[in-house]
Amino acid sequence: MWPDERVARYVNDNFLAARVHVRHNPEAFKQYSERYKAPWTPTILLLDADGVEHHRIEGFLPTDDFLAQLMLGRARTAFDQAQWAESERRFREIVEQLPNSDAAPEALYWAGVAPYKATGNPVSLKATGQAFKGRYQDTPWAKKASVWT
Amino acid sequence: MKIDFRSDVERVLQEGKAEQKPVLLDFSAAPM
Questions:
Q1: Does B28 touch chain A if contact means CB atoms closer than 8 Å?
Q2: Fewer beta carbons within 10 Å, N or C terminal of chain A?
Q3: A87 contacts chain B (CB < 8 A)
Q4: Domain ranges across chain A
Q5: Per-residue pLDDT for chain B (32 aa), expressed as one digit of tens each?
Q6: What ipTM describes this predicted complex?
């Protein structure tokens, strides 16, 4: 995951990165794994500027899926901070750029929720429910969106 | 390109707050 050029560029462009290693720095690993309830490796936490967790990635993932999870974390952070337009844009980027990643159906779901949160108009939910009839039908996110149609 | 991972987590968290930049925290057992 980490040696990939796209992943490295994305991380360096969007995050400050810290690492605690279970063998090289066991005291720090114990301290932070307890603080963040993260006993397993690899676990990657995406925190906002105030140190609040918004997304976590547990276990190895192939590069595209890992990159999509990093993008999902940024989108989730914007969503949690009520930045509806920004979060929608970031969710849609995942669907457009990495449509075959495991994160894409989840991103499609939340890309429909974000404009609804901004306006209260359910048209984006209905459109998203319809979109799931054409793709990602066998995912839990299609089931969740099925009530919108 | 390599990722600029740092081991001083508290320093990184402080810089994140000061720069209003998100932080990625990696719990790793990978060979280094």
A1: yes
A2: C
A3: no
A4: 5-148
A5: 889 899 999 999 999 999 999 999 999 998 87
A6: 0.96
